[in-house]
Write a structure and sequence with these properties.
Layout: H1 6-22, H2 24-34, H3 39-42, E1 53-57, H4 61-70, E2 76-80, H5 87-93, E3 95-97, H6 100-106, E4 109-112, H7 126-131, E5 137-140, H8 149-157, E6 163-166, E7 186-188, H9 197-217, E8 219-220, H10 229-233, E9 241-242
Helix pairs in contact: 1-4
């Protein structure tokens, strides 16, 4: 159901920003596996999220929630989307529209929130990865295919980029031998950004409401609540009425 887990994914994206910036996974692994107390060493590569320039690629339901979560960090937020917001909405959200090339070059943090299609597959390619700031961090909680993973591995091994946080991959699930799992400044998670009790409950409740409406009345109150509407209608003899 569209938008029902957007807050959970948004929180997850911001969490990955913090985890990468604060080196939490590195600190944890060194502490529990080696007994290494890196208090004064790890901080040399730790940074604050506050006041950073954050670039959002895609500003749909999740992207807008990310903006709201980031408000407390007083970040400067730019976005790129094929469908630009109205000027009024940009002012209300406190975001600035820029072209993709500019967003890639000026952002301290880049977070992906775009759909995967023919136009966006490998949107983040080797050219764009190399164009990012050397200390930029890249976050993806959207779709793995947005990033060319082979190019990402190559660029990271060259020493470019401060770190990466990924919840999605080109092929899922990934194995423990995935090349990205061998790079210390990469944080990986198993496509669980929307996996909270609250989000699951909301999705189930919304699904039941829509199915009940279809079965009893042949109506859907809001077609925007269905993410796979075309698939639902394909080959179906249902004549749905939208209100």
């Amino acid at each position: 159901m569209a938008g029902k887990n957007s807050r959970s994914v948004a929180e997850y994206a911001v969490m990955l920003m913090l985890v990468v910036y604060k080196r939490i996974i590195i600190a944890h692994n060194k502490l529990v596996n080696e007994g290494y107390w890196g208090k004064t060493v790890l901080r040399d590569n730790c940074y604050e999220l506050s006041h950073k320039k954050v670039g959002l690629i895609g500003l749909g339901n999740i992207g807008r929630q990310v903006v709201r979560v980031l408000m407390g960090f007083e970040c400067e937020i730019a976005y790129y989307d094929v469908s630009r917001l109205t000027r009024e909405d940009e002012i209300r959200l406190g975001v600035t529209f820029v072209d993709l090339d500019t967003l890639i070059k000026v952002s301290d943090v880049i977070s992906l929130h775009a759909p995967l299609n023919k136009q966006t597959r490998h949107l983040i390619n080797e050219k764009y990865l190399n164009a990012m700031k050397p200390n930029c961090i890249l976050i993806n909680t959207s779709r793995g295919g947005l990033i060319d993973e082979k190019a990402l591995v190559k660029v990271l091994k060259s020493g470019h980029l401060l770190g990466v946080g990924l919840d999605v991959y080109e092929t899922e699930p990934i194995g423990f031998d995935h090349p990205l799992s061998k790079i210390e400044r990469v944080v990986l998670s198993p496509h669980n950004g929307g996996g909270t009790n609250e989000a699951i409950e909301a999705v189930v409740r919304d699904s039941c409401e829509i199915m009940n409406s279809i079965l009893k009345y042949g109506k859907i109150l809001d077609k925007n609540r269905i993410v796979n509407l075309e698939d639902l209608m394909k080959g179906s003899n249902l004549r749905l009425i939208f209100e």
